[in-house]
Structures are given as structure tokens and as C-alpha cells.
Design goal:
Layout lengths: L1 E5 L6 H11 L4 E6 L19 E4 L15 E4 L6 H6 L1 H21 L4 E7 L22 H16 L5 E7 L1 E3 L10 H12 L1 E4 L6 E6 H12 L9 E6 L5 E3 H11 L4 E4 L15 H6 L9 H14 L14 H10 L15 E4 L1
Helix pairs in contact: 1-6, 3-4, 5-7, 5-9, 7-9
């Protein structure tokens, strides 16, 4: 089996590649990435050594020939959070929406058997009442969330004849990675606890956030690659996470404080309401993927992050201004003249590294 993974050099990709190499040892794993965050390494070794080949390029320009003989595409490449989407809204639409729709069409034309799209539960936006199911109304509040909705709508309208399409609406990612990022709620809290014994909650702590650990995301991708279309249909959108991980921000902070002794939690009770608040129903995922359910709980995820940061000798209380925040990396590349306003490389780089 030949599997192409776009955006493999980000936060999720290294953990996914490690998992796929373990469960599908004979698979040919190919990476394709713009390499914006290639040097943001927080672990030992280069994760891409587990690949059979690594290609570098902008997903907007992915060459159709790269899909020759590919059995499955796992599409992670994206401008990956709300602050980046707000700063680079036009590029977010181009990369996250238009390039994703183009890639799916190219994959269909090339005879790819399975297309796995990393979507997000953030498309529910602000959702009062009970947990949201897949058929419920969407309320995307940000450019990032709107881009995910646009791709899902296009994929459902595609009506592929021989390709399974799975839109994995992931809960908010968390956990340790060889390319750790700290612009995620749980990761941010653990970093603050480890570096300064203080967690600063920027909201009033009331918003709901479902979470999922990276290794459980990888298990879901594994399932989607091999999904039979009798499990959910030719094109499927499914919430991926666990009901136990529907948590309010203040409860996440309290859990981290319990794991890192001496940590003080500071909540901004005067903050305006954060409308990005939603609970999610993961019942369909339980029904369709009983053998690929999340296994990692909140306490284990917190311990993994804590121990990983300690092993890095992490001690930067001003980490929100550092390189482990993805927006800061993009801003740095822009300031150095390496990226333009559309997040295209000013000096194009292309190549292939074969393992």
C-alpha cells in the first residue's frame, strides 16, 4: 500500500507517521510538506526517517504525478489554527479550502482508493444546548473553521464512484510530539505549569472544548484509511473524540494544576465571552470504529506533556512569544523575507529525500 501524507512535517504528522509505520510496516509512506516548521523539533532525531520518501512543496502546487500509484491520501496540510487564519485569511482560504478541493479531485482522477481529510469540531463554533451530532447545524466562527466547512461540502458534493472519503472532525488536539506546538489549550496550560508554575486562562474558563490526544488521532486515521464504504457510506463526516473529553477550560486547567504541584491557576473572569464553545457527541464514531476508539485520558496526556517538557529542559515563562507558537514562526519567516503575504516561499525550494 502506498500512502501520501500531506502536511506531515507539522505537529500531528510525526506521530501519525510513527503509528502507521508500526501498524502498516510494509506500507510505502510518502510525505509532502512546505517545511515551514521543519526546524521546530522538540524531540531527538528526524521524524521523516520513518518515511520512504519526503517531497517538499506548497500543497497549492502539488504535482498530479505524485498521486500515481497512491492507494490512500491523508490530507493534514493546512494553516492550522484560528490566530493564523485571522492573520492570513486569504491564504487560509487558498490553502485550506481551494487546495484541498483540488487535491481531492486529483486523487479521484488518479484512482486513489481512500481520501482522509483532517477536519475539525471547531466547525460547530458556538453551540448551546446538548452535544453536537454530525447532522446538526454548523456555526463556523473563524476563517479556519469556515475553510473546513467549505471542503466538507465540496467532498460531499463530489459523489466519487470508487474512492472512499472520510472527513474526520477531530476534537482539539493535544499531547507530546517531535514537533510540539504550544498554541493549543492543554499544551499551553502544561507549558505554563512547567515553566512558571502558573496557568493563565485568557477566557473566563467557561467555554467547552472536546480534546483528543495525538496517538488517538493517529488510530482514527488508520481506521479511515481502511474504512469499508459500508461503514458510513462513500463520503462520511464523523466526529472523532471521546465523550469523556468534553471539558470546560477551567476544568482542563485544574487537571493540569493537580499534575504539576505548586501550580497556580489565574482565570480572567473579566474577559468577554469566548463564543468558541461547543460539546460534541462521538456516538457515531463509537458505532463505526469500535476497535479504534480513544485510549488516552486527560491525566495520561497531561503527564506525557509534562514529562516531555521536563526532558527538553523547558523553562520559558514567555513561551507565548516563542517558536513553539506556530504564528510566531510564520511571522519570523515573513520578517526575514522568506514568505510573501500569501504564505508562498519567496525563494522556491523543491527536492526529494529518499530514506
Amino acid at each position: 500500500m502506498r500512502i501520501l501524507i500531506t502536511g506531515n512535517m507539522g505537529y500531528v504528522g510525526p506521530v501519525l507517521v510513527r503509528h502507521l509505520r508500526a501498524v502498516l510496516p510494509q506500507a510505502e509512506l510518502i510525505g509532502y510538506d512546505a517545511a515551514f516548521f521543519a526546524d521546530c523539533l522538540t524531540g531527538e532525531g528526524l521524524p521523516e526517517t520513518l518515511l520512504d520518501a519526503q517531497y517538499f512543496g506548497d500543497v497549492r502546487d502539488l504535482p498530479p504525478a505524485l498521486l500515481d500509484g497512491v492507494d490512500a491520501v491523508v490530507h493534514l496540510a493546512a494553516i492550522s489554527n484560528d490566530p493564523m487564519g485571522k492573520r492570513f485569511e486569504a491564504a487560509t482560504n487558498a490553502v485550506n479550502a481551494r487546495a484541498s478541493i483540488r487535491l481531492a479531485a486529483l486523487a479521484h482522477q488518479a484512482g486513489v482508493r481512500a481520501f482522509v481529510f483532517a477536519s475539525s469540531c471547531s466547525i460547530y463554533g458556538f453551540a448551546e444546548g446538548g452535544p453536537r451530532r454530525e447532522a446538526d447545524a454548523l456555526n463556523p466562527l473563524t476563517a479556519y473553521a469556515r475553510s473546513k466547512v467549505a471542503v466538507e461540502e465540496s467532498l460531499h458534493a463530489m459523489q466519487p464512484q470508487a474512492m472512499s472519503v472520510t472527513c474526520l472532525r477531530f476534537a482539539t488536539a493535544c499531547g507530546m510530539s517531535p514537533r510540539l506546538r504550544l498554541d493549543l489549550v492543554l499544551n499551553d496550560f502544561v507549558a505554563g505549569a512547567v515553566a512558571a508554575r502558573e496557568i493563565t486562562v485568557l477566557s473566563d474558563g467557561s467555554p467547552w472544548r472536546p480534546l483528543i490526544e495525538l496517538r488517538d488521532m493517529a488510530r482514527a486515521v488508520e481506521w479511515a484509511i481502511g474504512r469499508d464504504v459500508r461503514q458510513g457510506g462513500r463520503v462520511l463526516s464523523v466526529n472523532v473524540g471521546s465523550d469523556d473529553w468534553n471539558l470546560q477550560v477551567r476544568d482542563i486547567a485544574a487537571a493540569v494544576a493537580r499534575a504539576v504541584l505548586g501550580t497556580r491557576v489565574s482565570i480572567n473572569r473579566e474577559a468577554p465571552p469566548d463564543r468558541r464553545s461547543y460539546r460534541v457527541d462521538f456516538g457515531l464514531f463509537r458505532e463505526l470504529a469500535p476497535h479504534h476508539q480513544p485510549r488516552i485520558g486527560l491525566a495520561e496526556a497531561v503527564r506525557g506533556l509534562r514529562d516531555g517538557l521536563v526532558a527538553m529542559d523547558f523553562a520559558d515563562p514567555a513561551f507565548r512569544h516563542g517558536r513553539l507558537m506556530r504564528l510566531n514562526v510564520l511571522d519570523g519567516l515573513r520578517e526575514r523575507g522568506l514568505l510573501d503575504a500569501e504564505l508562498r516561499r519567496v525563494a522556491r525550494q523543491a527536492g526529494r529525500v529518499a530514506a
